[in-house]
Structures are given as C-alpha cells and as structure tokens.
Automatic annotation (TrEMBL):
Residues 124-153 form the Outer membrane protein assembly factor BamE domain. It comes from the Bacteria. InterPro entries: BamE-like, BamE_dom. Residues 182-201 are annotated as: Disordered. This is Lipoprotein. It comes from Pandoraea iniqua.
Amino acid sequence: MMTSRHSIQPAQGLRRSVRWGVAMGLFASLLGLFGCDQQQIDKAREKARDTFNAVKPDDMLLRDLKPGVTTETQVRDQMGKPEIVWENSDGSRRLEYPRAPGGLRTYMVDIAPDGKLRAVTQALTAENFEQVQPGMSQDDVRRLLGKPTTVAEYRLKKEVVWSWRWLEDGVNTAGMFNAHFGPDGRVTVTSRSPDPASERP
C-alpha cells in the first residue's frame, strides 16, 4: 500500500515535536537539579560562614568598624547574620550577636536611621544587669541582654528563668545572671548563681 507524502510529513513533524518536548523537559529537569544543588551549596556556604563568624576572635569580628562610617551591609559582611534584629520607631535598628561557644559576650550593634553604624556594645555587663528590674517584659530584657544562655521552666513555681553566662570580674570568673519571669512574662526578681561549667570536676 502506498503512503502519500502528505501523511508522512505530519507524522515526522509530530515525532520531532515529541522529541523536542522530551529534550526540553530533560533540560528543564537538569536545570532544576543543578539549580537546587547550587542553592544547597549556597546555603551550606552561608551556614559555614555564620558558624565561623560566631567563633572568630573578637578582634577580627570588630576590626575596622567605625561609627558614622561603616554601613549595616559592611557590618553584616564582617560579623555575619545577626541572631535577631530589633526595629525601633525612629528607623534605627539593633543587631544582636551572641558569641559562641563560651557565650560570655553578646555584642549589640546599633545602626542609625541612615544605615550607618552608631555603636557596638558588650551587653553582658554588671551595669546592664542592674537595669533589669521587676515588671520588665521578656522583650525588654532580650533587647538589653540578648539571647539567654539557658531557659528553664519551673511549672510548680509558675516561673521561667532566663540565665546568661558572663565574666563577673571581666576576666576569669564566670557566673550566671538570672532573670525570673512570672506567668505574665514579666520580671519578678533577679538572682546570681555559680557557673555550672566551672563546678564540673
């Protein structure tokens, strides 16, 4: 049986279209696969950079940061991703950088409304601990002192205790500052306790 050229050409065109569609589908799948891999690589790099920034020496972490000159972008490039960013009503921001692994320092980086560095301060000081007063909210305390080293819940006493490890003498002697919160999430009292790490045999 004879087949006309008119019936062959549409069949060949259909096969070409199917092959083209399959090829494009495979290409799109490969792009998606490599794109996903690149995203995973970028995330791994970012995590590694943040881990390094969390443990790099303070002199490297704070090197050449100049109030009124250094931008927030430059701060983040050097110090990494902050633990939390506090937005203020005047357009200024506070970036929180707890230090690992000892957790004896937490740096608060204040950014002015113009996006320039205003100041870098060490939050875990006796002066700041004295500012923690009954009635303060958890947000107020967190803005002042940063992320606590430990959080403990005492259900029978109906309280939550946030504790920060810090150098009581500024050099060698570590201790714990504790803020006790009642059921309403406000400070009821503060206390001091020995550093559990220093009491281990």
